[in-house]
Predict the 3D structure of the following.
Amino acid sequence: MKLAIRHETLYRYTSPLTYTIQQLRLTPRVETHQHMLSWSIDTSGHRHAFTDAYGNLCHMLTITDSHDTVRIVVAGEVEVLPLDRGRLPESGALSPLVFTVPTRLTEATDFIQAFAEKNLQGTSSTELLKLAAAICGAVAYQSGATAVTSTANDALQLGQGVCQDHAHLFIACCHTRNIPVRYVSGYIDSGSTGHAESHAWVDVWVEELDFTGWVSIDVTHACFASDAHCRLAVARDYDSAAPVSGVRRGGGEESLDVSVKVVPLCAQ
């Protein structure tokens, strides 16, 4: 699958800013099954490229001139090869145990413990897919129901959320069994699902008779991730994998517009 992707992020402010610094995780990861054919980042200010602790390709954006908007546009083409039952060909440089550490967003509360005890019956890929289906049943997909600061417990109690919440709840459930699991941010060819093309899912560590390694699961669709998924970043949760995060000086009130378009080139 070849995916043509365009992602525009536009911040507007009611008064001028004197300083903006943003960390951008907006470049597809270099992985065996995923290849960038072309990619560009268009912003004002100065960008410094670096690789973070999780192996994500990042840029540090700084704008020091007076400004009242910040516009970030990334675009390009990525080739993604199919995955066999979500199995990733690389285990990565970090120990899987790095991804057993809970965070504020993925804390396994008593409520989540009880949910996991009922819905996580084993550690095989089949059982983990059943957990994803149970999460979809318990947390209906509803855009705007939660915020980027919402925790896994918030979404489970509310019974509504988006892909980020599904991923966080899956991670929290796996933590109750000490199963390594990573948050993944990226893009999806959403087809007719109606879900946002900017997407989040998980990689979970499995040890089966014929495979030991990461298996990528799209919790929101209760299926294995494959060649419709373009991977930007992996980390412990949204906070450490967010496509754009940072701070500013000045600016007054902020408004945000995001536009994402993913087109499968093979369908053209």
In short: The CA atoms of residues 183 and 238 lie 7 Å apart. The mean pLDDT is 95. Residues 125-138 form the longest helix (14 residues). Helices lie at 110-119, 125-138, 152-158, 163-175.
